[in-house]
Amino acid sequence: MSSRAVTVPLHYRRPDEATMLERAAAVRARCARRRTVRHFSADPVPPGAVRDCIAAAASAPSGANKQPWTFVLVTDSALKREIRLAAEAEERAFYGGRALTHTPSPMNSLARILRRPDHERPFLLIPIGYPVDNCRVPDITRKSLQDVLVER
């Protein structure tokens, strides 16, 4: 008996080079404007927009199509506050005794706060929202493409 997967036609229309370059430049420009914000407005992001973003993330390729992820959308403000306090405490403890350049991952408290099963491991926490009015962010620059790209 064959274990071949059922297939369907791929619906793909290859864009011309000019369109590809235009789209890539637009994505790059948008990403370059993106900033990390720690002070959010109380205005809610439309739930449908958030769910669409999660659906897009869930459609990412995975080895053998296992799709080994679970997304937890937290909308309860008390739960958000508990997560923020725990994340800040873990960051203080992590950075207080070390000089490393990354955020601690996974957050040990996240699975407990969200009451997730033991077999799940928190990997990423993504705060979503609008910045408060008159929000200020650090004036930073990013490395150039030449500084981060190696072509072989």
Q: How would you describe what is shown here?
A:
The chain starts with 16 loop residues before the first helix and ends with a helix. It is built from five helices and no strands. The protein has a domain at 41-58 and 68-129. The chain has 152 residues and is mainly α. The chain is extended, with a radius of gyration of 20 Å.
Key terms:
mainly alpha, 5 helices, 152 residues, single chain
Write the layout of secondary structure elements.
Blueprint: H1 17-33, H2 47-58, H3 77-96, H4 108-113, H5 145-148
Radius of gyration computed on alpha carbons: 20 Å
Beta fraction: under 5%
The largest sheet is:
none
Give unreliable regions as ranges: none
What overall form do the CA principal axes indicate? extended
Number of strands: 0
Average pLDDT value? 89
Structural class: mainly alpha
Roughly how many Å apart are the termini?
Answer: 43 Å
Topology pattern, helix = H, strand = E: HHHHH
| Number of helices, counting only DSSP H or I runs of 4 residues or more | 5
**Which assembly state applies to the chains in this document?**
single chain
Helix content bin: 25-40%
